Amino acid sequence: MKNANVLRLAILAASAIVTTLPAQALQLKETYKDWAVYVHEKDTSKTCFAISKPMDMKPKGVNRGDVFFYVSSWPGDKVNNEISIKIGYPLDGESAPSASIGADQFNLFAEGDKAFIADETVEINLVKAMKKGSTLVIKGRSKRGTATVDKYSLAGISAALKRVNTECK
Question: Is 49 helix (H, G, I), strand (E, B) or coil?
């Protein structure tokens, strides 16, 4: 049941992300526990990504848009395992969001309602930690000053990333 809900959420997320893409261009390849893998192909361009939705979001009852964590690859641009997070509200540019897995901390930077990692080495280390961990925590602060904490399950991430890398060699 939980995997079916993740699948539904992943489909909604993917459709929200790529509303301008033709429906047949985006393909759900597989779900791996709490993660789903999608591939988008257009002409000679190909994008693959693993996506998940938080299993817990705090504070409860805060007005937010869609919230998703992505790990994306674009072989044509030589981009592999790029991290991006859709936070669901405009982030405070003065307060950097963060990611943590256990004791490992990773600094992010804000751009509108999204967060990214600036340094490729840090990004590689985050992906490695994700494969070993069980829970990913994303903390952010909105422009209004509301602090949020989103917790993602990492169940299935290793298999999902393996599939992303197979699809987007």
Answer: strand
Phi (first) and psi of residue 64, to 5 degrees: -135, 155
Dump pLDDT digits (tens) for 59-106: 999 999 999 999 999 999 999 999 999 999 999 988 899 999 999 999
- Taken in order 84, 87, 88, 94, the sign of the CA dihedral is negative
Partner residues linked to 116 by β-bridges: 84, 109
**Cβ neighbours for 27, distance < 8 A, ≥ 6 positions apart:** 38, 39, 40, 41
Element (H, E) at 162: helix 157-167
Are β-strands 135-141 and 114-116 bridged in parallel, bridged antiparallel, or unpaired? Answer: unpaired
Burial 76-115 (b: 16+ CB within 10 A, else e): eeeebbbbbbbbbbebbeeebbebbbeeeebebebeebbb
Is residue 140 within 8 A of residue 116, CB to CB? The reply is no
